Predict the 3D structure of the following.
Amino acid sequence: MGAEGPVAVQTGEVLGSGKVLLFAVPGAFTPGCSKLHMPGYVQNASALRDKGISKIVCTAVNDAFVMAAWAEQQGADKDIVMLADGNGAFADAMGLVLDGSGIGLGKRSQRYAAIIENGVITDLSVEPKPGVDVSSCDAMIAKL
């Protein structure tokens, strides 16, 4: 989200340089994402920077307005870049689409975290079942 509204970006611009930690959630404002996943990254942003992470990025299949409101509500708007994937194109390109139509969510992203170094994914931790475990901030800090 830019100062004047949504701004289109290429993922290479956001993820292509430095050591980036990208985490994906099925949806902004959903319980697991809001109570477990995002808070860990907000609370430990400085610990990630101390481990060499230059940018923390969160993506979800939500629009930029929702992502900006969620960032503000979570206190993430200063430390975490919110990457809206409104149509799910990024989740699809990653091969990490979650079919949540059975619970009214439609096409979403699977929950995961990735360490990306100069545009190359060096670690990808996809949650094998519901919950926040392998993609948690604590799990990522342990890998760095």
Notes: The chain has a mean pLDDT of 95.
